[in-house]
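Worked example 3 (structure in, sequence out).
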């Protein structure tokens, strides 16, 4: 009988009927799914952080582009002013110059009003009437993003730049003495007024009306921000604490209700504080303060 020869497969040949090794283990697949889900969650979280960073201005500012009334509505003479031109000649800011009478107590002085970052100049009209009754020139304007000023998203940096632009308008264009310009900030504008006074120590006085706590402190009470690293992301902080601690400009802090005294406690001398219950208290407090630091006008 003929002897059968043993067949040797060629190199690299695999039996198609032999059991196949799995391409991936179950553990590897589970790890891959977990990694994919983790990466997706990280992308979603980073997206939320970016959206918060870009849209945080909406948590701080409540602008209106509408002007529903002017000083003329209240019977006040005024000039509408466009100022702070860009290189192309476009005016970025819009405001109102409300002159006092030539023989008024503070006819040589001007009060620069920095509003509270809500609405527009129209919403300041009741206060403008009261300030006019003091016998002082008043200049009020809308930050960029408000009223007729340039339509951009406002920020802490842009509002401080706008306050400096208003200061330059008064000193460079109207040729007013820096020592005749009183800064008056309301709410959020109080922080802007304090910082502006820090950059322009020639101002004879600064008034802080119902100053708001730093915006970061307020946001910490918002449950929506607890999952985000807001201390890293939030840049519109409006915290004048350090500036007030070293600011030598005379300060008047006005409150419409009892205040915990955060800024009063840290503010450097000279300083005054008053709680105003009505319009007459408001005017009396302002007259007493201006009479002390704008004497003999």
């Amino acid at each position: 009988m003929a002897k059968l020869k043993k067949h040797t497969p060629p190199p690299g040949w695999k039996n198609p009927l032999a059991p196949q090794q799995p391409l991936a283990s179950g553990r590897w697949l589970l790890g891959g799914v977990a990694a994919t889900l983790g990466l997706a969650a990280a992308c979603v979280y980073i997206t939320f952080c970016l959206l918060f960073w870009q849209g945080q201005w909406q948590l701080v500012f409540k602008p209106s582009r509408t002007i529903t009334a002017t000083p003329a509505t209240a019977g006040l003479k005024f000039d509408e002013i466009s100022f702070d031109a860009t290189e192309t000649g476009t005016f970025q800011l819009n405001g109102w110059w409300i002159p006092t009478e030539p023989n008024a107590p503070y006819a040589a002085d001007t009060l620069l009003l920095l509003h509270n970052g809500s609405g527009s100049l129209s919403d300041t009209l009741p206060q403008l009437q009261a300030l006019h009754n003091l016998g002082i020139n008043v200049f009020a304007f809308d930050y960029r993003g408000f009223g007729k000023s340039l339509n951009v998203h406002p920020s802490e940096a842009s509002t401080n730049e706008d306050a400096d632009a208003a200061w330059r308008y008064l000193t460079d264009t109207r040729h007013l003495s820096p020592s005749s310009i009183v800064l008056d900030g309301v709410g959020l504008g109080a922080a802007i007024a304090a910082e502006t006074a820090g950059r322009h120590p020639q101002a004879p006085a600064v008034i802080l009306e119902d100053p708001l706590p730093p915006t970061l402190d307020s946001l910490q009470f918002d449950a929506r921000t607890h999952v985000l690293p807001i201390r890293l992301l939030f840049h519109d902080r409006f915290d004048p604490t350090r500036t007030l601690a070293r600011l030598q400009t005379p300060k008047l802090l006005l409150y419409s209700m009892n205040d915990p005294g955060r800024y009063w406690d840290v503010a450097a001398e000279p300083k005054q504080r008053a709680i105003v219950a009505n319009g007459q208290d408001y005017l009396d407090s302002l007259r007493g303060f201006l009479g002390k630091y704008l004497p003999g006008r």
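Notes: The chain has a mean pLDDT of 86. The chain has one domain: 73-293.
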